[in-house]
């Protein structure tokens, strides 16, 4: 007899503006742990501690904080080991424009993520392998000044997100990756100036 049970639906990306959920990420080590779990798919607290140069107890504490907020969960045990895994394949933290706490908490998380991604980019450019011609032609760093209305900036932000969304699912499902696909990082920030 053939099993006709459909496979479970993939877990959707997390989209949240909930200040309580956002506050759980406003810590550099938690962002690093979640990033590490995204890369490894699952890891024990000991494995996380080894890769982050932290104690197992400290990593266990932060993993439980991430679990409480819904970012990570326990994976299938591996013998006596109890690994963790991310709940969502990706996360989009969107402030509620009517909630000051939500805006403040997204800004706190954003500052941590920007610092982490800026450090990652600086490490990349300092690495001699970045000078390989195949890498040079697929790498871009741009900083531009532009004058735009709020509506135009919102449209530009939507278009930038849509460009990256076109590749969604490839990280979780290798069958969606075309031949020759390589893992890449995209980090973009668009914001109006605060000065007059």
Features:
two-stranded antiparallel sheet, transcription, 4 strands, mainly alpha, DNA-binding, HTH_MetalResp_TranReg
Strand content: 5-15%
Report the major sheet. 2 strands, parallel
Assembly state of the chains shown: single chain
The average pLDDT is 88
Work out the helicity level: 40-55%
Low-confidence stretches: none
Radius of gyration (CA) equals 19 Å
Domain HTH arsR-type: 20-109
Protein name: Winged helix-turn-helix domain-containing protein
Keywords: DNA-binding, Transcription, Transcription regulation
Region (Disordered): 76-96
How would you describe what is shown here?
The protein is mainly alpha-helical. It has a domain at 14-130: Arc Repressor Mutant, subunit A (Orthogonal Bundle). It is built from 7 helices and 4 strands. The strands form 2 sheets. A two-stranded parallel sheet has the order 1-4. Strands 2-3 form a two-stranded antiparallel ribbon. α2 crosses α4 and α3 (45-52) crosses α4.
Put the structure in a nutshell.
It comes from Cellulomonas xiejunii. The protein is mostly helical and 196 residues long.
